[in-house]
Amino acid sequence: MSIVCDTYEPATNGQAGIELAGVSLRFRRYADQTPSFRQTILNAVLRRNYSSASEFWLYRDLNLSIAHGERVGVIGRNGAGKTTLLKVILGIYTPTAGRVRVRGLIAPLIELTAGLNIELSGWENIFLMGSLLGLSTEQMKQRAGDILRFAELEDFAGMPMKYFSAGMKMRLVFSIATGVPNEIMLMDEVFAAGDAGFISKATDRMHELVDSSHIVVFASHNISLVKKLTTRVIWLERGRIVADGDPASICDDYLAHMAAEQGSRP
Amino acid sequence: MEERTTIGLAERRRRRGLHPAAWAQAVRDDVIRLVRGRFVVGNLAGARLKVRYQRSVLGFLWAVLTPMLMIAVLSIVFGYMLRREVDRFPVYLFSGLVPYQFFAGSLKSGGRSLVSGYRIMSRFRVQPFVLPLSEVLVNAFNLLLELLALLGMLVLAGSWFPVVAPKLSASIIVLPVGVILLFIFTLGIVLMCMTLVTYYRDVEHVIAVVTRALYFMTGIIIPPTLMGEADIFVYANPLWYHLQFFRGSLWQGTYRGAAAAVTWPDAQTWIIAVVSALASFTLGYVVYKKYEHEYVYRL
Predict the structure, then answer these.
(1) Are A131 and B127 in contact (CB under 8 A)?
(2) Structural domain tally of chain B?
(3) Is B229 on the interface with A (CB under 8 A)?
(4) In the prediction, which pLDDT does B55 show?
(5) What is the mean pLDDT of residues B2-30?
(6) ipTM of this model?
(7) Model pLDDT, residue A52
């Protein structure tokens, strides 16, 4: 058995870019059971074949190219493949077929509370999250103070995070994720939470980041925000690109489509 | 700025065949990524240790106290039965049980490391490797603490009661070698078990039973010399040879009084331990590379 390596090369022209070429992605659905050895043996003995029945293709031959400077909004209903698209770009899901090429440093803002260890203190979590995002302890030391200050949690840094309120957790995670350097920003919904003061501060920082990143890909259900932030919109429907282009017209089409569907329901 | 090209699974599968150059590149890439991402390993392992010990009064002392108490119990129960057959039974027991517990503990937590690290695997771009590695490192940390405790006790006992208690001899220098070989051996097995557990969750129970069987197949309590014909099960077990490094330096290599009896692991022990460590790690790594990009779909 040989292996094929992903390649890492220095990008020469300094232009960020994302390119998906012929990307297909197949998922297995485990509707009511986790995979088990017992089940596999039983299937082999009884010559049953369950595996193909529970597979489905999210993307088939998806082509997408995002250039330096673009702010792309991804819209579509739940399960259309918006978050998964971000995860494919990020490199969490290796596509079943096709290639993904990414030029630039990625900052993911996707369900980041997952990286927290609530038994640890806020301070320790800053370093844990930082390392998961690819930063060294040294780099995080320089940023930790600012992160805590922005999250307004300086007084609680030493407290285990299980005693944090949901809003405090969100504030810390937001501050960490937006406090690391990036060239490409992948955002999944805006997860700012907390009191009105923090939300307005977070929104400001979000706009700053959108301005300073080379590329922004923003998956959201908040159509008005998508319209405001982006220069290009992709409408996904069951893993297919239905429309790609001008934000205003596509967002209007999408809303009209959703409204029509709503209306046709009894 | 860096350009990364991720190749789809279909193309990866098509290009099968043994290409040493591709493997060399894969190893190099993995090492580079691991060195760059070493902070993840440190933080994950550190988090584990902190959570386990930080909030108890005795803290890290528990890492040493629990096995000590366990050994005290076993020594009382079996030490009397085996007092004629096994010289210095508590030392014999300790020098086998401590590395065995490292192996068993690593297999347990490392085997399910991807499954329990689902939240990290599905949200962050990290090498899957860092999860089992940090689990094995946590267990290795415990192993080192326990070994230090035992060494301390041997030295103290040796100087207080020079006639009855053993003293350390020069053979103590093979102990670090034994730790390193056992670490490599264990990591390889953990990578294989992790793959199995990720694909088939119920294998976890099988692994638990097999590790239990290995307990008896490594002569932890009853040395193979007392097992009669059943000793073949012990001598056929590579783990036995790994534990011999620990027993060699801590039990056989220690002596009473003034008589220096330096014993070294024999050639067979060396060969089997080194070969099994390398084979286990190589096989584990090959399995890991084969499924590296597919684990995340199975969690």
Answers:
(1) no
(2) 1
(3) no
(4) 65
(5) 81
(6) 0.86
(7) 47
